[in-house]
Amino acid sequence: MPNPFVHCELNTTNPRKAKAFYGKLFAWKMEDVPMPEFGTYTMLDVGKGTGGGLMKQLCPGAPSAWMPYVQVKDIDVATKKAKKLGAEIMKGVTEVKGMGWLSIIVDPTGAVLGLWEPK
């Protein structure tokens, strides 16, 4: 699969409550990682399958929501292509220090999707 789903992220209005809930529901291993550009980020080790993360919702007034990320070969090219095809760019290409780059798009039907290029 040339563009697999590689990460699933919870943007939540209450990280503490979300961590308690999912930790008890699924027994996921969680590790807090300081990320200056996003605040505290919690890595989710889910065992088998695609892992993820959990962070405070950064969009004012937005509800808590899960967002999948799809891996791309070139984040700039993929983000520009998405826009050309009718997507809205919610967050332009952003570096995640030491890890890679992300962008967030809203497809023409209103669905939100993250794009990810690993370092």
CATH architecture of the largest domain: Roll
Number of strands: 8
At the fold tier of CATH, the topology name of the largest domain is 2,3-Dihydroxybiphenyl 1,2-Dioxygenase, domain 1
Count of separate structural domains:
2
**Mean pLDDT reading:** 94
Shape: globular
Uncertain segments of ≥5 residues (pLDDT<50)?
Answer: none
Strand content bin: over 45%
- Structure classification: alpha+beta
Q: Specify the number of helices.
A: 2
Fraction of helical residues? 10-25%
Spatial strand order of the main sheet: 2-3-4-1-5-8-7-6
SSE string, helix = H, strand = E?
Answer: EHEEEEHEEE
Please give the alpha-carbon distance between the first and last residues. Answer: 19 Å
Cα Rg: 14 Å
CATH superfamily of the largest domain: 2,3-Dihydroxybiphenyl 1,2-Dioxygenase, domain 1
What would CATH call the class of the largest domain? Alpha Beta
Q: How would you characterize the largest beta sheet?
A: 8 strands, mixed
